[in-house]
Amino acid sequence: MPKQKRRSTSRGKSSSKSKSVPRKASAVSKNAPIATSPLVEARNSKIHGRGVYAIAPIKKGTRVLEYLGDRITHAEADRRYTKKRENDGHTFLFIASHRTVIDAAVRGNDARFINHSCNPNCETAIIEVAGRNRVFIDAIRNIKPGEELGYDYQLTWDSTDEPEEIALYACRCGAKRCRGTMLDREPLDKQQEKKKKKKAKTTRR
Length: 205
Hints:
Elements: E1 40-44, E2 50-54, E3 63-66, E4 70-72, H1 74-80, E5 93-95, E6 101-103, E7 115-116, E8 122-129, E9 132-139, E10 150-151, H2 163-167, H3 188-204
Parallel strand pairs: 7-10
Antiparallel strand pairs: 1-2, 3-9, 4-6, 5-6, 8-9
């Protein structure tokens, strides 16, 4: 069975060209988890299942929620979801680092219900706090009450994935320039190949 798709360390509109680099704790005012927010609520979405909506004006730059859940290894994520139905494209897994995945299906909060959008009003920021990477949801523009929150999932995938599996992650965000998928623009194996080539060139110099 293919590996379960995971939300990558995205940076909203910057997409795959600007993967989030963990920042230090100076960007976080408090170490306590941001589990809830008086600015948003979860309810049924026209895009998919549950969604998160603004119930008050949200200013650009506001840290809205933290993506919370069980912190597990990539191997454990694979083991945990080996019995998942192959026709189920739903995922709550978020890559926090090369060692850690957050499984919001276990002890997760409303952040797990924020839907993918190809024209997002939010982005995810990975910040190192007390030696651990945490994932936060930040507004990248002003958001009006009643507006649904969304960020670019950039789900990881491989060029060897079957077309039937890729089709499970079709996007229905409704954006004018919707790219038609929640998957990252470039497969993970190709990204890793480019990194190896770049590293090899640097070494030869």
